[in-house]
Amino acid sequence: MNIYITRHGQTDWNTVWKLQGRTDIALNATGIEQARKTGEGLRRAGISFDIVYSSPLKRALATAEIMSGFPRGAIRTDERIIELSFGSAEGTTPEDRKRRKELSWFDDFFDAPEKYEPRDGAEPFSSSLSRTADFWENEIRALEGKAGNVLVVTHGGALQSLLLHIDKRSLRDYWKVSFQNCAMNLVTLERGVFRLEWTSRLFE
Q: 2-7 and 149-154 as β-strands: parallel, antiparallel, unpaired?
C-alpha cells in the first residue's frame, strides 16, 4: 500500500510567515492553483486514490478536495493529523516574536525542539507525536490489503510528526527536512512494515 502525504496549499499567512496552528485560514489563489496542478501531475503519473484523509482545517480539506477530485463528503477528516496548536504565539510573525519578550518561550520550537517547553495553551511535541502515531498504527495499518493508494493532507508541523514516526529520527532533528506547500512524501506499508520511500517531491 502507498500512502502519499502532503502539506496543504499556500495561504496568505504562509506568505508572511505567520504561525497558523489551529487558526482556520483558507487557501489563497496560489494555494488553490498548487493543489490543482499537483492533482493534475499525480494523474499524469498514473496515481489515483482509493481513500483520502485530511485535517479538519479548511486549508487542508480544500487541498484534499482539489488535489484528489474527491467530493468533500467522501474525504475522511481526522483530528489526529491537525496542526499543532501554538497557543499565544499563533498568528505571530518571526518579527513579532522578537519584539514581544513574553513569547521568547517559542524560540526553541524551531531552534532546539528537544528543549521546547510550550506555554499558554500550545501543544507539546509529545502530544503531536502521540496522536500521529495513533493515526498510523490504528487507522492506516488497518487499511493494508484494503487500499492501494491513500492520500493524507496535513500541515507542516503535523507532517513532521507523521514522518518522524516512520523514519525514527530524533526530536532534535524534527525540522531536518522542510516541505513546500503541496510537496508529496511517500510511505509504503508492506507485510506490516512502514517505510519512508521519498520526501518533498513536487508533482506539477
A: parallel
Neighbours of 1 (CB within 10 A): 19
- d(Cα 64, Cα 36) in Å, to the nearest integer? 10
Enter the pTM of the model: 0.97
Q: Which domain holds residue 70?
A: 2-86+124-201
Dihedrals phi, psi of 20, to nearest 5 degrees: -90, -45
Active-site entry in 8, 65, 155, 165:
8
The parts of the chain modelled with pLDDT lower than 70 are: none
Answer yes or no: 33 catalytic.
Answer: no
Residue 79 sits in a domain of what CATH number? Answer: 3.40.50.1240
| Residue 83 annotated as catalytic | yes
Q: Which of these is catalytic: 65, 83, 90, 123? A: 83
Our count of domains for the chain comes to 1
